[in-house]
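DATA SHEET
Item: assembly model
Revision: 1
Owner: S.N.
Input lines:
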Amino acid sequence: MTPRLTRRRFIKSVIFSGAALSSGAGFYLASAQTRPSGGVERLVSLSINGRTRRVDVMPQETLAHTLRYKLGLTGTKIGCNRGECGSCTVTINDVTHYACSTLTHSVKGKEVVTVEGLRAADGTLHAVQQAFIDELSPQCGFCTPGQIMSAVALLKTNPRPTRDEARQALSGNLCRCGAYDHYLNGVMRASGQLS
Amino acid sequence: MTYKLLGKNFTPPDIEGKVTGEARYAEDFRKEGMVFARLLTSPLPAGRIVSIDYSEALAMEGVVGILTTEDLPQPAAPANPSLASDEITYLGQPILAVAAVTEQIAENALEKIRIEFERRPFVVDPLDTLVEGGPNPYPKGNTLVRNGGAAAAGTTQSGTDVAEIKWSRDAVNAFRAGRDPGPNVPWGNEWEFGELEAEFAQCTAIVEEPFVTIGQSHHALEARTGMAYWENGRCFFYGSLQSHTIGIPALAGMLGIDPANLVFINENTGGGFGGKIFPYPIMAVTGHLARKVNRPVQLRITREEEFYIGHARAGMQGWLKMGIRADGKVGAIDMIVIGDAGSGGGASGPGAANFVSLMTQPNAMRFRGVSLYTNTTPRAAQRGPGENEMATALSPIYDKAIKMAGLDPVQVRIQNAPDSSGTIGPQRGTLTGSWFPQAIAQGAEMFNWEERKQLSGRRNGTKVTGVGVGMGYHSAGASGYDGLLRIGTDGKIYLHTGVGNLGTYSYAAVVRAAAEALKVEWEDCEIVRGDSSLHLPWSTFQAGSNTMFTEVRTNNAAAQDAIRKLKQIAATDFGGDAAEYDIDGQRVFKISDPAQGLTYAQAAQRAVELGGEYSGQTYPEDLNAITSRSVQGLAGTGLIGVAKDTRHSGTVPSMTVGFMQIELDTMTGKYDIIDYACVADCGTIIHPLGFSQSMHGGGVWGVGLAGYERLVYDPQNGLPANVGLYQAKIPTYLDVPKNTQHGATNIPDPQSPVGSRGVGEPSQGCACAALASAISDAMGGHQFNRAPITADMIVNHVAQLDHFNARNLQTNTF
Amino acid sequence: MPAFDNMPDMELYQPVQIDDALALAARLAERGWLVGGGQDTYGWIKDRNKRPEALIDLNGIESLRGVRETENGIEIGALTTLTEVATNPIITQRYALLSKAASVVASPQIRNAGTLAGNLAQDVRCWYYRRGLDCYRAGGNLCYADTPEAQNREHAIFNASRCVAVTPSDTAPALVALEAQMVITSTSGQRVVAAEDFFVGPDVNIESTTVLRDGEILTAVRIPAKWANAEFYYEKVADRNVWDFALVSIAGAMRIEGGNIVESSLVCGAVQCTPRRLTSVERAIQGRPRNEATATMVAGMASQGARPLNQNAFKMPLMDNLVTKLLTA
């Protein structure tokens, strides 16, 4: 379990005003509405794909929203916004989560990885990404980033999963095109079990 | 025939973006100054809007504009207005849109809008409006009629109107009880061929069964979000459409502009399944709102809204009487379909009847149908509309008749399946070619039917094995669209396509037919697509399993035009007749002296110099206006290959057979699909992995239709229960076949230049039919008469509580 | 009816000490909303069908996480994720009934975020209620699900009282079967409630499925040693095998000595608003072997007294069948 040494004991209200520091594409400017006092500080530092990003986050804002509309990371898809489809799956400290059902404020101090964060520094695709290309895993592609994140998280803890283990691990990701078998082929290839 | 490219796998150019997150869907585009719109949707299934007060909302800080029906052109019923005018005809119907600087503010504003409604009686079960005295879903009636007059403004079909059709209470009760409603009821559609009664008299096995299929929601994972902005009278529209250029005239029409002033960007589409074939009403809201507020507008559609406006499959309440002769020949079929067309849209009875006529080739057949509106979500095509739900309904009934005749389900299906002399529908239309009997035999061998059928009824603790077989079909091809390519002065081949990109990669597979004809390396080709400003041709809609047949024809036509021009240029430069020249190795050369010739790059340069048709300065007059404009845009940049495809004749039948083995727990109604094997007769397989994707994905969809997916409306208040994905029961990784095997006859279609036809739709039909057949088999041949067949129904049957399952053909039961 | 999708403005508190959380819970009372994994929170608020003024995010309170051995069994922190409950070695070895139950909740991602307390305290899934209708449970004065035309396949067959919603929790039947104790803390102290008494039906409180009051936090779940390493059976029957709620589930713990069941604790989920203890079956099978003959003897007993609605009569044979499977597995 990650120690939370940096967390302050019961943060006092600091109302962030003004939109100038809104980072990323800046399409969602801070709303001018007045806020009740006593809660979290809005300006936060997040670790996204190994980079620290300063961003103005509403208290009730979801991670999917922050990624897509404030940080320009549109690879994370919103398929249902209710934690039912898995298109928004990201890893937080290597564990898969639905970004649409995660408060951005709850990932402070944690490592968030999205599909955009998987390429190696030299641009090489992650083994899962390459295998998904080789197996023609995606169809429409909308659920693909989420499928990839679930597969990446699985291989981190279980580098040679059985097909059934892969099926279980990816089971929180719907694919309306029904590309399940091709995704599983991709996981088996990425883990070196299919040539 | 062996090909260099076709029949081999390749890496479609868009797939890398899909695995890196760089692929852009409509919701991923941003534009400086963009504002966000949200919809106000109707809380009532039927009624009238008396007044709307949005003054408080409009005055809110951050709200930039509101669009209502008064801002839009008005179509006549039953066409679906983009925003409801007076009449509300389904719950969830959009009424107005609010644009604000954030979505949250737009939603806050929605809470401040006051609407006064007047309620009207509503109906969610077609038989409740069909019965005399029953409420009508529209003020004017419950069905579409063709009145032969002028097209109602805004309607897609000419000469249509809403009228009323009613049956006596006795007739409806008889039908609900699973009987022919008798001779004295009106039909919306009926046809017959052969001597029905005489043929039934020849049959030794006759079964008569009712059936209900509910209309699943499409629920594509990408909802139909759009973004639009305007510049100098031109609209730039980022939309989610499974087709591309074919949608441009209709979308321009919605926006009230000339198609030349519309730039339609549609790089990726997150699923369509028939629900996004053509521009849909809400696109008009995005475009008009952007113009009204004079800012870029993103109208994000939520999952719940996608349910409301994203269409659904039409439902069926039907009756089928089937007669089989002693020798296994299907003698006669009599069928009725009451179709649920929702609030606008079309029912699928005729498609269902055509399916039955093709799959069983009866000597005589009669179809009678009524298409009825209800106050439920609008219906649209969904993967094999009519055919796949009918495949599900037919399979257990067919099995029952075959069992009664003492014959083998697979042998009888082979015996009656169409070969190339088969016919379809009331006109007994011809086929381009069919090798479906071989496909069934191939599937039976792959599945090892002879051995597996012995497993039927085998007990293992509380579990019992069922085996089933099913058939799927869809008409998989059209013709007459345009092909366009350009050989650049850099020697590269630019393959332009205006088909969409709903995820099958067929857009890429079909342009390879042009590359193949031009004998070029795939690495030297670039596909040009996704943005209408890139000069795209008029292409087919990407639906109806069409692309693989229709668009290899256009691409081949463009390639042949380019080859002709290459040879003519070479003949101009090196003398002689064009016929003395050939192509290979990306050169055009004299056959008698290959040293005399030009590289494609040189030929393209010569085309630019020569001008005229060679470089697109002139072009055929029969091209669609969209293609013509694209050629104008490309003129002078290389050698242009462009042509309108000729016409084919006959139905292009894409057919599949599926076999399933399930192990069903009689205590819980749950089952595992142990094995699924499917074989397609869909011509030459030009992209094996893409074919595999279609067959496997169709298998998942088949399980959804026959076993899981719901569409339930509450009869008390017209409220849908399945607006979310978990409620709609979209199949997951753990609900689908554990092992799927697929195969193909791989026999070329005679009217496709490379033999291919599509299979996206029949790939579902064979799976849902096989599952319905297998469940029935596991239950000793019991007829559930319903799709989906769910765990509770199985538990009820085992507990001899079947009266809870039958429910008098009600559509709305969980 | 707009399809809302964005949470309105609200305040967020992220205490890292339980005392601060309790103080906040006391101060905010019904205006606050406790968030563990949040998996049954954000949907309500995005739909704008529930409107708390503030969220109290408990995730920073480390003392609420983890599995500890105690003198008489184990104690599981309320914030322990369902993934950990499903995989923790102590639980999988001694209380496999609970780990099995936790492993079939929703989906992997929800189990990664969702907490044991959240799974127990989650609200009912009645679709009418979830759509924001003004039913009894929402403070209104009618029930849309208990009518002749209602779509009520998933609703209750026992103990309806105005409301016919059922318990949606997969872990609740397991914890009732294991005779767990719920540790409830507030600024005024701690109280410990038996799992069976923790859940309440609409006859007791129509707006809440638990005894938790405003200002209280479920801080831990204690499982006594009594049922450690007993014979267990758990089965959840749902439409889908992922992300779905039980049509009926069963959780059973049996102590077998000399070939006979000497004591058992059998509980069904999704048949009424609370986990339903099958006391008549427990009595009938006492002293008998766990076999087909015993199953035949008690056939139909579990569903006795059920009052099905128009679409859920199947739950009666399904309950009985699950008892049969439990006894013959």
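QC remark: DSSP finds 13 helices and twelve strands in chain C.
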